[in-house]
UniProtKB/TrEMBL annotation:
It comes from Elizabethkingia bruuniana. GO terms for molecular function: nucleotide binding. Keywords: Nucleotide-binding. CDD domains: Ubl_MoaD. It holds the Pfam family ThiS. Belongs to the MoaD family. PANTHER family: MOLYBDOPTERIN SYNTHASE SULFUR CARRIER SUBUNIT (PTHR33359:SF1). Transmembrane segments: none annotated. GO terms for biological process: Mo-molybdopterin cofactor biosynthetic process. Gene3D superfamilies: 3.10.20.30. GO terms for cellular component: molybdopterin adenylyltransferase complex. This is Molybdopterin synthase sulfur carrier subunit.
Amino acid sequence: MKLKILAFGIAKDILGGTEKEIDLAEGTTVQSLKVKLENEFPELKRLRSYFIAVDNEYAENDQVIISTNEIAIIPPVSGG
């Protein structure tokens, strides 16, 4: 399945834009998505942490992704 990944903050710089389309097997988990992203974009491994959101909610690593899900990479944020 093809998924559109939305990227914010430093993740946008790492992926080279605000959106990236990737191919995944049907029934892929969030953890498998992270592994694929980190293999394609090794700079993601250097982030202290980042989250994957599925349909506007933070996702657990074992959550299964389907083709209609909206996926976003949420990097660490700082504020003041």
